[in-house]
Structures are given as C-alpha cells and as structure tokens.
Design brief:
The protein is of the alpha/beta class. The chain contains 12 helices and 11 strands. The protein has a domain of 216 residues: 3-Layer(aba) Sandwich (Deoxyhypusine Synthase). 46% of the residues lie in helices and 17% in strands. A 6-stranded parallel sheet has the order 7-2-1-9-10-11, sandwiched between helices. A 3-stranded antiparallel sheet has the order 3-5-4.
Length: 312
Amino acid sequence: MKLREVIDFDLENIKDFQGLLKAMESGGGFSAKSLGEAYDVLKIMLMRKDCLRILSFVGSIISTGVRGIIKEFVKRRWFDLIITTTGALDHDLSRSFSSYYHGSFDLNDKELYKKGYHRLGNILIPKESYGKLIEDKILSLLKDAYSKNIGSFSCYKFCWEIGKMINKESSFLYWAYKNNIPVIVPGFYDGAIGNIVWLFSQTKKDFRIDIIEDENLLSEKFFESKKRGALIIGGGISKHHTLWWSQFKGGLDYGVYITTSSEYDGSLSGARLKEAISWGKVGLKAKQVTISGEATLILPILSLGLFKIIKE
C-alpha cells in the first residue's frame, strides 16, 4: 500500500470551487475525500466522447432548487441518457406552471392537509399546483395526440412531448426534448402522470405507453457503447435500472453515487457502488466512488467545480 500524507486545508490559497474540491481530496478525511474523488471521476467521464454518460436521479430533488442544476446538466448536453422516476416528471411539469414553497420538517401534517398543502420533506406544494394542474396539462396533451391518430408512445418520446408542451427553459424535460436526450422512466405508472395516462386508457382502449420500446433503446445505447459512466443521485428503481443495463456490456467504467442510505440493511439504495462489482454491474477496473451525503448539499459544490471546466 502506497501511503499519502494528509494535507491540511489552506483557506488563504483556495480561490475557487475546483481548488476547494482538490483540497477536499488531499485532506484525506471522511466524506470530503469522497467528494473530491467524485469530482475527479466525473471530470474524466464527462470529457470522454466515447463514453455513454448516464444521469440517474430520484424525483424528489426536482421539488427543490437543485432542479436548476439538473436542468443545466441537460441543457449543456453533459449526459446522453436520463433514467429517473415519474415524480421527476410530475414536479418538473408542476413547477413549470406553478410555485412550490419553503416549509419545515416539523410542521403539523394534519393542519397542512386541512389548509390544502402537500409536504415533501421541508417543501410545501399547494394541492392545486399538483394533482389538478398535472391532470389538465397531461389530458390536453393526450387528447391532442389521440385526435391525430397517435395511439402509442414510447415513454421517452412521451417525455419529449411533455417537454415540448412545457416550452420553458427552466424545465429539464424541455431541454431533454430540445437536445434529443432520452428520458427513461422504468416505473412510469408509479406517479401522477402515469396514473393520468392509465385513466385515459380506460376510455381509449387502443392507447398505450410502449415501455418495450424504451428497453429496446436502452439495449441499443448500452450495446453500442465503448465505455459507460453514470452519476447516480439517490437509489431506488432509477439506480437499479442504470446498473441493470450496465451489466450486459461489462459494467460501468465510471460511477459516482450520492446516497444517504445505509448499506447495513441490505437495500439497493444503501449499497455502495463497489458492491455492484460482484454482480458485474460495475467493472473490475472502474473508477467509482460513493458519497454518503444528501444531494442538495453535495450537488451544488460538485457542479460549480465542474461548470468551469466542462464544455458541451
């Protein structure tokens, strides 16, 4: 084992976020080192033109200001493929036409219900900004498509249609549509938009979301790739689907995973990326790191360091 000396932070000489991230790695200690290592892995991954770059994230972060970071990733074409949850679609659509508000983890949820608010952590969502708004927008899109004899969409093409309808630069779905970046939602029906599509199909029996077409696209993307890398924000189905498809082409070559979950309950969300090596989902020689931390803290620091050096 080659030993490296722990280097103290020199605050007087840290001039920018790149310098801060380098100092975190050199400091050698605990979560800060993981963040510095993640910065180095992502720099390599994002600059490689022969690498399939995957952005995987859970829907909840889109309810926060981190939505602006995700939007910027997509706008700048840093990633070739997005794998996420229906909640991400719901919140992106809702926030494009309404506002969410600051709340607290300690608010009385019975009182919030009576006053017409949903609570997502410490974010408050007016009921009229969620269910009814999403229903009206999606039903209008579906009725228009059906009137044009469009009876089937892949999920990723349907996401592009949502982005086209939103038509606002604050939306990550808008930029996915503009930049032709597929948005894959393996658990499509587990959320408001998916449920509205299901309800629509009850009266239009020939209407379908063709999830098989999404899987065909994933097969094409992964088997044509020379290298594969992923930034995985949070666990669950979006993380699993990213790793699942990676195993069929030798695993990820680059991987950064941000999680608050513990590995000691055997959960997928808690499993560090190194565990996926045993499944062939991360390569034996992969550059990979797991950051134990909450995404709304980690992503702004990591992203500001990258924004200065990564070009489209």
